[in-house]
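re: ur question from yesterday

yeah so i grabbed the chain u mentioned. its 333 aa long if i counted rite. heres the sequnce exactly as i have it in my notes:
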Amino acid sequence: MTGWVADPGIGWRILLTARLAEPPDRADVGDRLAAITAAQEWPAPPPLRVREDLGALQRELVDADPAPLLVGVSGRHLVLSAHHSAVDGLGLLTLLERLGAGPVRSGARGVGARTTTGGAARTTTRRLREALLHPPARVTPPPGRLTGTGDVLVERTLPGTHRTAALVDAATRAVVAHERARGRAAAHVAIAVGAVRDQPTDAGAPVADRSVLLRLTDVEQLDAEGIAAALASAPVQTPPAGGGNPLLARAAAAGLRALAPRLGSTLLVSHLGEVTAPGVRALSFHPVTAGGTGLSLGAVGHDGTTTLTLRGRASSWNDNGLEQLLEAVVSLL
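ran it thru and got these structure tokens back, copy pasting raw so excuse formatting
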């Protein structure tokens, strides 16, 4: 995780849940996990976590933990939790295969050699100006009882294939409608979109965080075609500076934490693409909840369906409120 500069108040764990055709062999999964961590030169992994309650296992595995990879089993479900500094979403699919789930392939395409937002100083200056003059729209949590700890995770599976641009469009309209129902205008909706440059061509290549971030602003002013065009041309966001210098890294991390609500985005969207996995019956993906409103919309297509997830901080959201927002997104697809 050397050089990882990010808000230290966030756990930075991403989650992949796979329902397999047969219950996983725990001993085999444990052996494969040990082999993976040795090949990756990661610290020895904690023991495999086994829980009867899948929801409880998922919530446990997204709690903050420095381990590059945690794995749990619940019935026929295999749950992978990775620190985002070590693994990206597509890397989780690779790890799922290496843990014995059979071939797992994604049709997701990278953004290639797309231009960036420029140097770190220029990008930071632009984002600070936005934070001061046009901060991203917030999503108001509905009233209700809160637990205050950890994250809330909800999901829905719907038929068909739904591309990232369609998800951004539906999510934006859902946020606008959500705020309008509460007497507020959702101005300056900012959507962060997770992507990769390119996928490794060597099937045996080590996994790593190869992710990049695109960012669309004032999305509420765009129609579906405008969103697709903006997504196709959006530059890759230059990451924070300071990774090579411990003092600068700590300063950058502290600044990110202090300014996260205004520097972040209204929503993060991350789609793992259409996945082919004959040994898997269902997949779901929960991206990180960082900055801004702390809401992330995950998606993965598999076997003619798309599973959408919404993840939010339990200090602001409960199951009912998050399910209502996800249902609004689904209804607009």
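noticed a couple things. The helical segments are 26-40, 54-61, 89-101, 120-133, 164-180, 224-233, 246-263, 319-331. also DSSP finds eight helices and twelve strands in the chain.
anyway ttyl
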